[in-house]
Amino acid sequence: MWKEIMQRTIVGFHRDEEDQWVAELDCYHGQHMRHTPPFYERFWVLTEEGRATRLGTQVECLKCDQFEWPEKLVEFKRTPEFTEETVPAGLLRDHRTKGGIWAKINVVEGSLLYLPETGEPIQLTPPRFGIIVPEMKHSLQLLSPVRFYVEFYHLPTIS
């Protein structure tokens, strides 16, 4: 079955250690943007003006699709431990994190089914945790008596 790859917004550009242009995405992943004809026709990446025209456009992010954790994220919030009696109803129906917010579902005891919109259900049991990608619709299903909590992450703020 074919599925759509997650779309992310280009928010900036930088050069990597090999002097190649990398698009900085709003999910905190990077994606190389090379002009290597005839394989890739991206003449726009060669000038500052060309790159500026691509800011705000969307590209597919395979790293988000594969639940790849970006580097340098820091935890900023953690929920209390929930049980099958105390789990908020909102976690059991479709919901999303905000843009730029990643999360980990940590099961302490028992098991949960993590239902991301872009993929197969994932059974979570200790020590296997679930990664929540920013803005991706998801829900949880209780499979047994359970204890779990959720950690929320973003990039560190620069002061």
What is the fold named in CATH at topology level of the largest domain? Jelly Rolls
Instruction: Report the CATH C-level class of the largest domain.
Output: Mainly Beta
Order of helices and strands: EEEHEHEEEEEEEE
Count of helical segments? Answer: 2
Whole-number average pLDDT? 92
Uncertain stretches of 5 or more adjacent residues? none
Q: TL;DR?
A:
The protein is mainly β and about 160 residues long.
Report on the architecture of this protein.
- This protein is mostly beta strands and about 160 residues long.
- It has 2 domains: about 5-65, no CATH class; about 75-155, Jelly Rolls (Sandwich).
- The protein has 2 helices and 12 strands, in the order βββαβαββββββββ.
- The strands form 3 sheets. Strands 5, 6, 7, 10 and 12 form a 5-stranded antiparallel beta sheet that branches. It has a 4-stranded antiparallel beta sheet with strand order 3-2-1-4. The protein has a 3-stranded antiparallel beta sheet with strand order 9-8-11, with no helix packed on it.
- β1 (about 5-15) and β2 form a beta hairpin.
- It starts with 6 loop residues before the first strand and ends in a 5-residue tail after the last strand.
